[in-house]
Amino acid sequence: MHNNTIKIVSSIDVESHILPRITLSSLLRSQAIALHSLLRSSSFTSTPSQCPPRLSLTAPDYTQLFMPARISSSPGSVIKCVSVPKPSSSSARSGIPGVNLLFDDDTGRLSHVVNSTCLTALRTAAGSLLSSVLALGKVKDQVKSILVFGDGAQTVFHIWLHLRYFPSIKQVTVVVGQHRNLTAEDVRVKEDKLQAQLSALLHNRSLSKCSLTFLRADSEKSQVETALGTASIICTCTPSTVPLFDHSSVVSPIRTHICAVGSYKPTMCELPPEVVRSASSQGSLMVDSKEACSHEAGCLIQAGLQVEEGSVELGTLLPDPTVGEEEAYLERLEKQQWKEAEVSVFKSVGVGLQDVEATKLVVRLSEGFGVDVPF
Question: Which residues of the chain have pLDDT under 50?
Fold first, then answer.
């Protein structure tokens, strides 16, 4: 790109043209780079990656967040900017608008403006899938059911990526209404929207190959409990302040892996403390960042867990992403040895370095899309 232009990559560019180009191997490798960069003993470089505390501004209807970050081994700095609607805002249920800004190291100039409305969900779900491959990759063909709590973009992308890796899944259950009251019409609208989003993402795989069931958390509790008992993968994608299920409900006939990504404050909690403590005692509790989770992961804090001693960082379990071909990374990941625990848990609060690599991956695949603007 010429130094005096910037490329603008729109939401249509990302969702309609770039996402279909992303292979699982390239996506997982990009997030492995981010998670590896968190490691204190990283062999990447003597210069640490940078992820300073986020800045926030309060607007009448939004909280605006600005999150700069850079990975020492990978050129370019990224600033993630999002506007989080306040509960009272009329936009509170229409998603979180965002944009990621990529700066070129050689020129110091802004080189790309990327609509990032779906990128947070993409990178978070990719982190979850990394953990799912470690936990269930050895029994991949036996994974028949996934249950997801939530109804937003995180739910869509967790289902999408897990269906891509686990083609044996026949049952997808989505539980809605955990943290707000929904009418029957609300549920119907959400069901139609989620089905449309998944169909658009799946492209060559029809949803007809698996059963998609929506359950309401308040009025269909027995059905939710039954679905929990058969789910090999459970994803929690809500800002709940109370556990979403009872620990006795997790009784899958094969291993059960839980990806908890919705709670990100000490006051939030999606998982029963018994599940957290059990996974920790078995050595099967993974986290994206011990430091971040020790301050922000309400699920772990409220369970009385000492995160530093009671968990393992996902990055320590992953193959070195700087070695080998990009498209061979998934195969290398599948060969990694990890505990064959009856129940394993991955807790993520999200780290800014993940946004850096997700943005760079999208930019790399944006050739032929977007608009170059003199600047």
Answer: 1, 41-45, 92
Instruction: Say what the pLDDT of residue 49 is.
Output: 87
d(CA 290, CA 308): 6
Please give the pLDDT value at position 185.
83
- Give residue 196's pLDDT: 87
In this prediction, residue 375 carries a pLDDT of: 87
- CA distances to 89, 127, 167, 302, 350 from 265, in Å: 21, 19, 34, 11, 11
Q: What tokens were used for 69?
A: 């970050």
- List residues bridging with 205 in a β-sheet: none
Q: pLDDT at position 41, please? A: 42
The strand pair at 5-9 and 371-374 is best described as antiparallel
- CA–CA gap between residue 225 and residue 92 (Å, rounded): 29
Structure token digits, residue 183: 């009418």
Token pair recorded at residue 238: 């809500």
- Please, what's the largest Cα pairwise distance for the chain? 60
Domains and CATH numbers, the chain: 5-119+356-374 (3.30.1780.10), 121-351 (3.40.50.720)
Model-level pTM?
A: 0.93
Sheet containing strand 343-347, strands side by side: 211-216, 171-176, 145-149, 233-236, 256-260, 343-347, 285-287, 312-313
